[in-house]
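Form P-L/3: holo structure prediction, ligand flavin mononucleotide.
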Amino acid sequence: MKIPELKLRGLTAKIPIVQGGMGVRVSLSSLASAVANQGGIGTLSSIGLGDLKATKKDNEGISREALLREIGKARSLTDGLLAVNVMGALSNAADLVKTAVAGGIRIIVFGAGLPTRLPRICPDPDVNLIPIISSGRVARLILRSWESRYDRTVDAFIIEGPLAGGHLGFSVEQLKHPENYSLEGILSEVLEIIKPYEDRFGRRIPIIVAGGIYTGSDIGRMLTLGASAVQMGTRFVATDECDASDEFKQAYIAAKEDDIVIIESPVGMPGRAIRNEFLERLDRNGKTKVKCPYRCLTSCKAESARYCIADALVNSCFGDIDRGLIFAGRNAFRVKKITTVKKLVGELLAGLAAFGEGDPGAAPDRGAMAMPCREAGRDENEQGADVGGTEVRGGMIRAKFGREGETIHDDSLPRPPRREDPSLR
Ligand SMILES: Cc1cc2nc3c(=O)[nH]c(=O)nc-3n(C[C@H](O)[C@H](O)[C@H](O)COP(=O)(O)O)c2cc1C
Ligand code: SF4
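OUTPUT (holo model):
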């Protein structure tokens, strides 16, 4: 397959690969600049850059300065495309968006919360605003709300499917049956939903897909189904340039398939992580001591939280993994070695270039999207098998749906079309 560019508004990435924002401090200037130097989009995570011992007010200022410093460092290392990832569940989310834009960032990726006010926080038409979604329903909600309130549409969507690492936009129940929420199915639904908006706003809305993408041929399959690019997290963790500690990376290498588990999080969404001493202890004791000097999350109730996720993520990132949470994608157990970003991207592009050779049906074409799973020759069950070892730990904190900044998993998600659906024949 010819390697396509990813065209955003006013910006073009040479390759269709976005390195996902990974907090806390997993994707900072080193990783993001290395990916940008290979022609992809490198994403800086903006969470947890403050000082856990600071007060809420101090913390906002410290986070702001730290983010500007990281942007400056990344800029000194690359002329390529950089994005900043902001989690809507953060109490200083608006401040981080404004800071990133003031620091010259032209791509804001907004996840873990409904971006209802994002165009007001960042009205600059030169900044690409890219919400992360996990269902067609949330895509529709954002598109409608932005059009009616701001006469604006999204510059791209990132769809995170159920195999992704970090926080997930699905309920624990849904994650027990990920085959019902395949990335391919959600992609097909979202591609339909965006069509009238593309017509009305007179431009294409690229769809970037994430969650479980591991090889060049995975990328090829998604492009063939109508995605414009992929976002990847797990594979970029296992690189020299990744900003996390070596202990964090080694936990990926050591992980077995059934070590990859679903956990509850004070953010109000489930997350995927590697089973370790921290999670075992939490299971045994039910709770750890929680001190909350500032409310970093709007959704976290420190009095009842089982653990402080800010603390746990900072610990693991700095190498204290026995006291930390190690987020990872469903495919983290497949990682066998640490490599460089250059080698990893080279391997992915070689796989992508080889994808569909001699198969004219494999050319990227949105028009061919009507029959997602079957057209790709992919058995839906393949994904179910991938997640066979998923284990749900503890109860989950349910989140309602709809207000600004609320988490966006939704129990009534419409199911994507299934293979046996007669409308697909
Ligand atoms: C260690 C880790 C931390 C992550 N942190 C964040 C985050 O802070 N914000 C976010 O939007 N996504 C986060 N993610 C999700 C990634 O950006 C990406 O979408 C996802 O990992 C893609 O799935 P993959 O890991 O299977 O490639 C995280 C993922 C990992 C593995
Ligand atoms: S207890 Fe919750 S709100 Fe407080 S610092 Fe920890 S994660 Fe943030």
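COMMENT: The mean pLDDT is 85.
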